[in-house]
Amino acid sequence: MMNYKAFNMWEHKKLNSIFELNGGTTPSTSKREYWNGDILWATPTDIKKLINSSILYNTEKKITHKAVNDNSLRLFKSGTLFLTSRASIGWTILTGREITINQGITALLPKNENEVYPLFYYYYFRFIRNLLNSLASGSTFKEISKSTLRNLHIPLPPLSTQKKIAEILSTADAAIQKVDEAIEKTQRLKKGVMLRLLTKGIGHTEFKDTEIGRIPGEWEVRSLSKVFKLNSGKSRPKLMSSVREDINTYPIYGGNGILGYTNDYLIDKDTIVIGRVGYYCGSVFKAPKYSWISDNALYVTEFKTNDVIIDYLNIYLSFLNLNKFKKQSGQPLITQSIVNGISIPVPQKSEQRIIVDIESNIDKYLELLKTKKQKLQRIKQGLMNELLTGKVEL
Question: Would you say residue 7 has pLDDT above 60?
């Protein structure tokens, strides 16, 4: 039996001497009287999607009291620790309400509540998730057996130590959550700001009705065929496994962004790339000069006018969601003729620059927030490595 023991003076015990293990089941889906009730019924999916949360308050599916009674399901009280033991293994959550579970979750109930702080073990089991996965078996669904779990050796630090460690890690989680909320708020702000800028512009008082909707009176409406010339990319050249410093390498762009690197390029200036076919049909992004454009994408070979800024065009086409213009015969497809027939509003060049600058400033702030989140995540991982292995004495 493989054990996971920290190199410290903590006491270690088999899991079943610290916790009572309980399972659940799935009531028959053919019995309508079992479903759409008011009792929360958790699955591993409900737990796994709460990557940044330690408490489960709701579930995707709910069952009835009849389902609970007929299947002898146990209702677990608020504060119970759940561990996913099937399919998605090693994810933990604490319950925020009374809840029952399916067969993919193991409920861990402390045998002595004066020795166990569940939030500590919420972090501990997530920390050893790779180990738990390595102990699982099964061809259709990987599962870690109850026997394996019962015999797993885990640490039992003093209760005060468990609480201190949980407090430190939950403080790190709270900081990450705060940044997450700021990112979500900024993304919503960006969406609202860009919607207003791309339809109402800046400081306009007079508007006109056009084929693409109501826009400022000073703006023009122009088909994309009069703005640029499109072409299809070419078959991908030989991919390079890595970027080598001793030779020139160039990114290969396709409908889903960078696909790899090559030692040749197709374009020698910045361009707009549009996903042509498949899942990324209609996606839009700006590719830098000295890039290769693959044959699953369209790209702008030249601009027919000098009064449209490439960055404004990139912003507007992304906002427009070209995917809605696709052909649906077999796999999704957007053609040059479809794109050429689309009309866009064209503000004065000076106003385009302001719109581009506003989006750029919001994006810079978003990047700062995302960088901060990454730093906090690295700090948290470092804390887990030190605290959950007992390397740092508290």
Answer: no
